[in-house]
Design goal:
alpha+beta, tt1808, chain A, 6-stranded mixed beta sheet, 3-stranded antiparallel beta sheet, globular
Length: 211
């Protein structure tokens, strides 16, 4: 009996089989960060993605080093659609900033493994936040060849050296602010405020689409 040939092994799949988020709170935080960081970088070359596989090096055989940060920021690469972030196809520029929004299923061992991976492959700022417990920590360095400095909530208010955004911890949890002081908001809040402003303009007889 002739056996059918095995399907070729895919070294760099565009999905890891894991959900983007374990719950709605984690998902909301990922969407909030991605949408606001894209807005922050709208006038410069920067790529922001949520739950996208990052392959830092090209290999010929498994295992293939990869991680899918909840959010990653790559300054110096154009925005646009990607199935994954293959660093050797992106001028070998590693994400400078990554965010991990913790869920109840995450373990300390998992977070330590992520920290080791991000440190090994050139990340300058890795930021971890648990929206349930409000626990926050970050590891920051000025360049890949330097040691990390830990940042905790006790260091707040803290400003990201790479992005210029400010972090504060309020009674309701973490708040993030643009360099101009505006607070990161969920997309639906921004749209609701826009709709309200448009309605007021229409009451004055002004067509907002002509502005």
């Amino acid at each position: 009996m002739v056996q059918s040939p095995s399907p070729p092994q895919v070294l760099y799949p565009d999905a890891d089989g894991q959900p983007m988020a374990d719950n709605t709170l984690q998902y909301r935080w990922i969407v909030r960060l991605v949408s606001n960081l894209r807005r922050l970088l709208h006038d410069q070359q920067g790529f922001v993605a949520g739950d996208l596989l990052w392959y830092p090096v090209q290999v010929d055989t498994p295992p293939v080093p990869a991680q899918a940060p909840d959010v990653m920021v790559v300054i110096g690469r154009p925005s646009g659609e990607r199935g994954s972030y293959k660093q050797w196809k992106e001028a070998n520029i590693a994400p400078q900033v990554v965010f991990e929004i913790l869920s109840p299923s995450n373990t300390a061992r998992e977070m330590l493994a992520k920290q080791a991976f991000y440190g090994k492959y050139g990340v300058l700022e890795m930021i971890f936040y648990d929206p349930d417990s409000f626990e926050f920590w970050a590891l920051v360095r000025p360049s890949p060849d330097r040691d990390f400095t830990p940042i905790m909530a006790i260091n707040f208010p803290w400003v990201s050296p790479t992005l210029g955004i400010r972090f504060e911890l309020w009674e309701t949890g973490l708040e993030v602010f643009y360099p101009n002081g505006d607070r990161f908001q969920d997309p639906e809040v921004v749209l609701a405020e826009r709709d309200l402003a448009f309605a007021k303009l229409r009451e004055l007889g002004i067509d907002p689409t002509q502005l």
